Amino acid sequence: MQVRCRLSTLMGREKYQIQDVHEKTGLSRMTVSKLYNEKSTRIDFDTILKLCQLFNCEVGELLYLDDEV
Asked: What is the pLDDT of residue 67?
C-alpha cells in the first residue's frame, strides 16, 4: 500500500501549470514538480494545507491510498 497524490489531476482540472501552483501557493517549484510527477517521498502538513486551499478540496481529494502497489 502506498500514499499517492492527485495533484496532476487537480492541476489538469484547473488548467494550471507547475509555475502557476508555485506562484499561487508559495511552494517551491521542486516541491510542486515532485508531487505532480509522484516522485515525492514525503509531504508537510503546510504543503497539504496550501494545496487544499488552492484547489478548494479536502485532503482525501489530494491524497489517497493505492492498494495496487
From this structure: 87
What is the distance between the alpha carbons of residues 56 and 37, in angstroms, rounded to a whole number?
21
Pair 63, 5: CB distance under 8 Å: yes
> What percentage of residues in the chain have a pLDDT greater than 70?
99
Q: What is the pLDDT of residues 38-62, one digit of tens each?
A: 999 999 999 999 999 999 999 999 9
- The grid cell for 51 is 494545496
The radius of gyration computed from the CA coordinates of the chain, to the nearest angstrom, equals: 11
- The DSSP-derived string for 14-69 is HT--HHHHHHHH---HHHHHHHHTT--S---HHHHHHHHHHHT--HHHHEEEETT-
